[in-house]
Amino acid sequence: MNSGACENSTAPTTHNTRSTTASPEESARLPKLIDAKLVLQSAKRKTGDFGRHEAIGICIMHFTGLPSLVAGVKRHFLTEFIAEFTKIEWVARTACICSVPPVSDTTFPQKQTGGLRGDSFLWAQILSRTVSTHTHYDVAIIGAGMSGLAAGIRLAHFGKRVCIFERHNAPGGLNGFYSIAGRKYDVGLHAVTNYVRPGVKGTPLTKLLRQLRIDRDEFALCEQKQSRVTFGPRGAAGSVSLRFTNDFAVFENEVAQNFPSQIDGFRALVAAVRAHNEVSLDAKPVSAREIVRRHIADPLLEDMLFCPVMYYGSAQEHDMEWSQFVIMFKALFFEGFARPFDGVRVIIRVLLEKYRAAGGERRMKCGVKKIIPRENRAAALVLDNGEEITATHILSSIGAVETEALIKCGTRNAECGMENTQALGQPLASDNSEIRIPHGGHVASLGIAFAVPPGRLSYVETITVLNRQPADFGWGDDTIIFFNDSPRFNYERPEHAQVDTRSGVICFPNNFAYPGDQQLPEGLFRCTCLANYDLWKNLSDSPGEYRAAKQRWFDDIAASAKRFLPPLAQPAALEAATVATDMFTPLTITKFTGHAAGAIYGSPVKNRQGRTALDNVYLCGTDQGFLGIIGAMLSGISMANYHVLQK
Questions:
Q1: Beta-strand pair 136-142/388-396
Q2: pLDDT tens digits for 364-409?
Q3: DSSP readout, 462-488?
Q4: Can you list the alpha helix ranges (DSSP code H) found in 113-247?
Q5: How many CA atoms lie within 13 Å of 170's alpha carbon, on the beta-carbon side?
Q6: Mind listing the pLDDT tens digit for each residue in 290-324?
Q7: What does the alpha-carbon distance between residue 625 and residue 629 come to, in Å, rounded to a whole number?
Q8: How far is CA 580 from CA 60, 379, 548, in A?
């Protein structure tokens, strides 16, 4: 398969072929069809775009007038016909992709006796016409992140013909993993939120497992030890730390001890959180700061409550929408953190297995270039390789701004720069941000004005791999630490520096309660801080400056984070134990996840009902408004239920 073609997730099977050419008699049977050379050229251009048995059956009936043969179509016969006729391996591979079930013992004349040659020319012609017919799906899903995979599983369970289109070569989206020198790194995932123990019902995790038909043991989730919200460097005058575990009583007790005058207000706030229906699709946006201040009078406690929920889910600077605050407060404090021993790839593997078992299709390295609208509906999707596919419904998990750009490109029939999809950024005159719409390419040249504001918040993360466990440094107690060193917590895009090291998140993946006292083979020390996409973008044309900036900020972030940890016995102990490092920046996020301006949490304005300008295109994922990994998957499920299965 050539490098420009979209890849099907099914591993191809190759077949031995032998040379066969069409006789004059065979050619005469189809005088109106194009010659063999054009058939092959057409098939090669459309590699991988076979329809299911319905499309092939229609093609057979149309060109042969023999509908009785449809029941006899079998996958291996189709493969043999094409391979025999063409002597080209990629055509044989392509035939294996088409979903033609062996529904009958009836076979074509002479097939069981090896008499294939007589009909090979006929069937190669017929199947070439099938290839040329673009594929139709009940639902097309853009993006193979958590929400897209969950939506695909849910829809496939109910017999919908679903295909997920993903530009990247790996699933997971914002919560994926990658390998360098054989060492696997998680990206995005610090912990699965919303964790509850077996037997607890009516929570997001239990709803998710039920809707996707997943046994909780398949995720193999291991609880955190404890986490902290810490304001002020360790040992500094006025520093305050609030511990929390997966038992909410621990956090409540910490608030009572450190803020005794606020505990009644805190309990009233907790009651308001419990009473709120945060997943209502019709809820009106309300300021979380406004509601929290009705109950909490101490600005320090207010900021300590907002710090973790903002870092783990807010696309809005300074404040949050109340429902989103409630989602994250419940996810972190009422429920809690957990992680599979082998990280996020366990969750991705389970989702992929469920999706495949349900009959879903997936095309990797196959992005959507534009959405063609017609009469307020999406008439077609144009893929990166130029193919057009159609779908009754389209679910987009790539973000509101990014989805809107695809529609704008399709409306203007603009060439959206498929060749530039790996660029690090393209400017857009909106909110003074330079953003790239990776599924749309050059957006600035289109002069698009977006109805949805693009996100401004992005991050950097450093990963340090150690030859010992964090506990060997005295860092074995805490799983995750949310830190801040300023009088007030400033959750905003840093305007005058590439990174703001005053606040951030420290994560030790080693410090979960793994079964049987298991230990990860290496120590991991991860630190996350707010970053400015534009200032990183300015370095994209200078690889040397970009690398130098990464090294500078890597060191600065580590130095800042260590202020909130027990002191090392030797100042250089961390460096001496380091065996590998990596770091991602806002540019990395945009390049590999497709989020404009590296905005992990998308637009600050969420769309609970997931509606777009087109009646059959819907949003799921971050910009729909459900947060966290569990929230993202529930978003995919909810939008699939609401827009497709309930209609």
A1: parallel
A2: 999 999 999 999 999 999 999 999 999 999 999 999 999 999 999 8
A3: EEEEESS-GGGGT--S-SEEEEE-SSS
A4: 117-132, 146-157, 204-212, 216-219
A5: 16
A6: 999 999 999 999 999 999 999 999 999 999 999 99
A7: 12
A8: 58, 49, 17
Residue 103: the pLDDT is 30
The position carrying tokens 């099907």 is 8
Task: Return the bridge partners of 499, or none.
Answer: 531
Q: Rounded to 10 degrees, what is the CA torsion of 177, 179, 182, 185?
A: -50
Q: How far from 277 is each of 93, 229, 283, 325, 330, CA to CA, in Å? A: 50, 26, 8, 12, 11
Q: Which two tokens stand for residue 628?
A: 């966290």
Place of tokens 């897209």: 148
Does the reported pTM lie above 0.85? no
Give the dihedral sign, CA 431/436/439/442: positive
* CA separation for the pair 96, 78 (Å, rounded): 8
Q: Determine how β-strand 578-584 pairs with β-strand 458-466.
A: antiparallel
- Give the DSSP letter of residue 642: I
Report the 10 Å Cβ neighbour count for 81.
Answer: 25
Give the torsion through C-alpha atoms of 388, 393, 396, 397, to 10 deg. -130
SS3 label, residue 74: coil
CA 293, chain centre distance (Å): 35
- Rounded to 5°, the CA angle 419-422-425 comes to 105
Assign 1 a pLDDT band (cuts: 50, 70, 90).
Answer: very low
The length of the chain in residues reads 647
What confidence category does residue 44 fall into, taking pLDDT thresholds of 50, 70 and 90? very low
Are the C-beta atoms of residues 14 and 92 closer than 8 Å to each other?
yes
Q: Are 337 and 480 in contact (CB under 8 A)?
A: yes
Place of tokens 């019902």: 201
pLDDT tier, 267 (very low <50, low <70, confident <90, very high otherwise): very high
Asked whether the beta carbons of 167 and 396 are under 8 A apart, the reply is no
Among candidate residues 150, 145, 281, 152, the one with its CA nearest the CA of residue 210: 150
- Tell the burial category of 445 from Cβ atoms under 10 Å away from its Cβ (0-12, 13-18, 19+): middle
Residue 279 pLDDT level (bands cut at 50, 70, 90):
confident
